[in-house]
């Protein structure tokens, strides 16, 4: 709430930036044609569309003008989410060799992720800030000072020292969230009542409660015991693992999911959808 809203850029600035981006990609004839079309748009229908966009922005001050179109673009794309949309992070091996054992590392990552979630939901997570001058802004003294500044202008105080707070409004979707396939446009689902973790191994799906009834992390030894059991399970990989369907074209997956629902698998699919997150215990070493 303390961040300033993203302003709607002037139409002429958008056209100028667009043409600047096209110039290196086009020959003179192509660029000349593109320039004419862009200027015709600017003086024609573009002017009306820009006025409508500004009016829409003024009537929706609780969000950004770009938020709804971005979600429409993201959720309406029908390509497989694998590689096209799913981001990932790669972690370096732990400095302590004994911590690189799959069971130990998986246990540590689960416990750390849940503790992060608890901090986030308690409102105690430190804000994400991009520091251009960390010697001044990424210090205990500055953090103590900025706490006393009213939220409505705290961003200005950060800007004064070249520190730029980042939007964290989507962090709540880090846990208990999934993308449900639907025809033409998917839906985002978040169900924070789920206390269980989803684990995938050899294409088989497992769940166990990683939170107790009070919503707190169970003992790390219990997490380790659950994961140890899963790793020792001799169940063979199915001929057609269910998870493969999620890599399909989104409309194809939506139709297949609907058939699974109609076949009485709604409860099982809800367990998958509402899990804290999914842990994949691959056997391959990358």
Automatic annotation (TrEMBL):
One of its GO terms (cellular component) is mitochondrion. Residues 6-284 form the Choline/carnitine acyltransferase domain. GO terms for molecular function: carnitine O-palmitoyltransferase activity. GO terms for biological process: fatty acid beta-oxidation. Coiled coil: none annotated. It catalyses: 4,8-dimethylnonanoyl-CoA + (R)-carnitine = O-4,8-dimethylnonanoyl-(R)-carnitine + CoA. Gene3D superfamilies: 1.20.1280.180, Choline/Carnitine o-acyltransferase, Choline/Carnitine o-acyltransferase, domain 2. The keyword 4Fe-4S does not apply. Pathway: Lipid metabolism; fatty acid beta-oxidation. Keywords: Acyltransferase, Transferase. This is Carnitine palmitoyltransferase II. It comes from Carassius auratus ssp. 'Pengze' (Pengze crucian carp).
């Amino acid at each position: 709430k303390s961040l300033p809203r993203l302003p709607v850029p002037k139409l002429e600035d958008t056209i100028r930036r667009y043409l600047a981006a096209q110039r290196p990609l086009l020959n003179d004839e192509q660029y000349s044609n593109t320039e004419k079309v862009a200027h015709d748009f600017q003086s024609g229908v573009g002017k009306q569309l820009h006025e409508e966009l500004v009016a829409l922005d003024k009537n929706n001050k609780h969000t950004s003008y770009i938020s709804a179109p971005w979600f429409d673009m993201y959720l309406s794309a029908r390509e497989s989410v694998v590689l096209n949309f799913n981001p990932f992070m790669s972690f370096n091996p732990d400095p302590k060799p004994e911590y690189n054992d799959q069971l130990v590392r998986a246990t540590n990552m689960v416990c750390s992720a849940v503790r992060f979630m608890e901090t986030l939901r308690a409102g105690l997570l430190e804000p994400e800030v991009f520091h251009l001058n960390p010697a001044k802004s990424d210090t205990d003294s500055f953090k103590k000072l900025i706490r006393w500044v009213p939220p409505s202008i705290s961003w200005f105080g950060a800007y004064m020292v070249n520190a730029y707070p980042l939007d964290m409004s989507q962090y709540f979707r880090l846990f208990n969230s999934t993308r449900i396939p639907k025809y033409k446009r998917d839906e985002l689902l978040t169900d924070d009542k789920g206390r269980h973790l989803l684990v995938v191994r050899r294409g088989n799906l497992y769940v166990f409660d990683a939170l107790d009834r009070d919503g707190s992390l169970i003992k790390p030894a219990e997490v380790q015991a659950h994961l140890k059991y899963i790793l020792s399970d001799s169940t063979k990989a199915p001929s057609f693992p269910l998870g493969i369907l999620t890599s399909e074209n989104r409309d194809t997956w939506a139709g297949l999911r609907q058939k699974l629902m109609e076949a009485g698998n709604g409860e099982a699919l809800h367990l998958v959808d509402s899990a804290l997150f999914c842990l994949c215990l691959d056997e391959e070493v990358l």
